């Protein structure tokens, strides 16, 4: 039956019956049997199915039969056009759950046949318009994914104005593919939106799609609750839509675009995730360039600093060349200075801590100021007694210190000096810095505490030596770093370290200096987090600060291992996490899950079982919900990691009486 081409003869007969108003029920039954024939044969033959009935063989053959029937329909139309007759097309058995294999044969063939033949274009349009709604999504997606061409002209030839005529197809194209799904490639987006832009009837849908995309892009709820991958997908769709807009269309919706841009960029810049903020800036710049072609446009720029020397006479020729290029021309007649016999001027740095304070607060000598900034860390570490006399004052000066010159690595130099002061005299300096926990310095404060805690928790003998082999994880918290990525690495390394390898030499043990000061670092940060202050509100709009606070607490908890206060810290941290576990911001939730990891790794197992049994059981249930329901992939990954850590406690938890 198959090898003799009877399947195409059967479909052709069905088409003829449709033209003669044949029985729709019979036609439907026959078409369903054709589609399901491999299943019926397999059920009858019980595993002895011929290879031609395997789906990977049968459906491409069926696709070829469809092309043969369509060719007969084309020939029939050409013969009857003069007499005004028409052959009514019916949907063929190409659209079902197995349409993928059929379309892989059908779409390339129809693409070639519709290039310059209007009859074939009409056949194709009528074919897709007759598809039942239950199969329309599979058909549209199949054509969109396979009919890739320059400027979407192939898809336009194959589908015509299907999205205008069919409500189901319109829903799939304008809603489901763009707003409810985000798995399609950029090429599919370009093909789909390009298809909408190629016809005047479809361009109205393009404008509607852009408005709905911008509404979603500018929704603070969508930015908070949808995964970054979906937001990137929507941003790409917006940029593609903007590229297809014409000037009259932009003029008609200019104010709406401006309003959407302002609302959307605010939502994105408020996000704690760097990739979301970047997406907001990119889309906002694109919208601004579209609506302000003649005037100023929105531009997010990274500050560029030119490295000018304080002594112009010593400027090398290279800098003059750079400056000339920046000015738009290059002066080839510029004669370089002969610096072959010049010697670098050496500025003597201060040797006393109080002299450093004087230079940093009042000196106008920029060379001396630079030398002081470069030498301050080593000076503090060499003179701990002198540092303790002025530690609070010096810490405040460094916190407010701004860059006077373009000194290389200024932020790192300042940070290292601050860490040195904080580790030298932690008890008075820590609460002093906490009093400056306001809008401008709150991030610096958390970073300093994290770095100082790390240093204090490591033995002195290991601070100045380079590790080889198994190393302690190094936590870098410079501006712009992603703490959640660091924590995934840290937890992985800590879990690996639980496996003892007897070939490795044990490191010499020494007291944990963090033990005596851990409370001064941890508890002032965790208390009163739910009380709004004049300068900020952690549970309100300052969720970015809350996210940093949570990650800092996780670091402090992790480094408090083997300290006396670790159990009390773990209990307080677990209560803190429980109060915020349903926070809407994904960055905050990532930090909370990092806190759980730190607690499980740092608090002794017996203390966990005795002091926090019920809390751990509740936490385990919550982690299971996060793994199943949280929209953020990093949160799901961290929750699963925590469940694996808790698995080690599972047997002990079962033996504890309720």
TrEMBL record:
Gene Ontology MF terms in the entry: Hsp90 protein binding; telomeric DNA binding
Name assigned to this protein: Telomere length regulation protein TEL2 homolog
The TELO2 ARM repeat domain, residue ranges: 201-296
Keywords: Cytoplasm, Membrane, Nucleus
Subcellular compartments: Cytoplasm; Membrane; Nucleus
Record-stated family: Belongs to the TEL2 family.
GO CC annotations, alphabetized: cytosol; membrane; nucleus
Keyword Cell division: no
Gene3D superfamilies recorded: Telomere length regulation protein 2, C-terminal domain (1.25.40.720)
Organism name: Buteo japonicus
């Amino acid at each position: 039956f198959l090898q003799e081409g009877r399947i195409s003869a059967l479909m052709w007969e069905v088409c003829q019956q449709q033209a003669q108003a044949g029985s729709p029920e019979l036609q439907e039954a026959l078409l369903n049997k054709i589609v399901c024939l491999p299943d019926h044969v397999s059920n009858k033959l019980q595993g002895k199915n011929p290879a031609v009935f395997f789906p990977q063989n049968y459906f491409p053959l069926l696709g070829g039969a469809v092309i043969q029937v369509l060719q007969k329909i084309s020939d029939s139309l050409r013969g009857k056009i003069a007499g005004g007759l028409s052959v009514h097309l019916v949907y063929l058995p190409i659209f079902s759950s197995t349409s993928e294999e059929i379309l892989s044969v059908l779409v390339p063939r129809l693409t070639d046949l519709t290039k310059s033949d209007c009859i074939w274009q009409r056949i194709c349009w009528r074919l897709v318009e007759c598809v039942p709604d239950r199969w329309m999504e599979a058909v549209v997606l199949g054509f969109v994914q396979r009919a890739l061409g320059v400027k979407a002209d192939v898809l336009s030839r194959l589908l015509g104005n299907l999205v205008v005529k069919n409500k189901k197809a319109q829903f799939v194209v304008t809603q489901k593919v763009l707003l409810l799904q985000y798995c399609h490639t950029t090429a599919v987006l370009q093909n789909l939106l390009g298809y909408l832009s190629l016809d005047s009837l479809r361009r109205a849908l393009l404008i509607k799609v852009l408005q709905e995309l911008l509404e979603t892009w500018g929704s603070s709820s969508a930015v908070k609750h949808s995964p970054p991958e979906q937001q990137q997908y929507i941003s790409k769709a917006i940029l593609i839509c903007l590229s297809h807009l014409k000037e009259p269309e932009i003029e008609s919706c200019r104010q709406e675009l401006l309003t959407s841009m302002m609302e959307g960029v605010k939502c994105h810049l408020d996000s704690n995730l760097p990739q979301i903020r970047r997406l907001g800036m990119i889309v906002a710049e694109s919208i601004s360039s579209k609506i302000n072609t003649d005037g100023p446009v929105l531009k997010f720029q990274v500050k560029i600093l030119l490295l000018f020397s304080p002594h112009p006479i010593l400027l090398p020729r290279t800098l003059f060349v750079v400056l000339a290029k920046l000015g738009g021309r290059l002066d080839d007649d510029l004669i370089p200075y002969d610096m072959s016999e010049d010697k670098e001027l050496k500025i003597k740095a201060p040797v006393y801590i109080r002299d450093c304070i004087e230079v940093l607060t009042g000196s106008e000598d920029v060379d001396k100021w630079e030398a002081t900034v470069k030498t301050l860390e080593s000076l503090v570490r060499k003179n701990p007694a002198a540092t303790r006399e002025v530690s609070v004052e010096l810490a405040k000066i460094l916190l407010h210190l701004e860059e006077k010159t373009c000194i290389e690595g200024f932020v790192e130099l300042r940070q290292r000096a601050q860490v040195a002061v904080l580790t030298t005299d932690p008890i008075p300096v820590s609460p002093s810095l906490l009093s400056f926990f306001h809008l401008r310095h709150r991030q610096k404060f958390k970073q300093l505490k994290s770095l100082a805690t790390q240093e204090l928790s490591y033995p002195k003998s290991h601070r100045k030596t380079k590790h080889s082999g198994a190393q302690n994880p190094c936590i870098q918290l410079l501006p712009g770093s992603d703490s959640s990525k660091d924590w995934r690495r840290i937890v992985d390394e800590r879990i690996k370290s639980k496996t003892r390898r007897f070939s490795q030499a044990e490191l010499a043990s020494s007291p944990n200096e963090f033990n005596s000061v851990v409370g001064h670092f941890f508890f002032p940060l965790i208390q009163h987090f739910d009380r709004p202050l004049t300068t900020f509100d952690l549970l309100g709009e300052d969720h970015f600060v809350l996210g940093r606070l949570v990650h800092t607490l996780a670091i402090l908890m992790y480094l408090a291992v083997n300290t006396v206060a670790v159990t009390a810290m773990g209990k307080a941290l677990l209560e803190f996490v429980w109060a915020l576990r349903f926070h809407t911001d994904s960055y905050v939730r990532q930090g909370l899950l990092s806190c759980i990891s730190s607690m499980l790794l740092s608090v002794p197992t017996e203390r966990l079982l005795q002091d926090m049994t019920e809390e751990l059981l509740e936490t385990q249930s919550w982690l299971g919900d996060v793994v199943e329901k949280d929209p953020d992939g990093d949160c799901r990954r961290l929750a699963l990691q925590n469940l694996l850590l808790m698995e080690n406690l599972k047997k002990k938890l079962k033996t504890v009486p309720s």
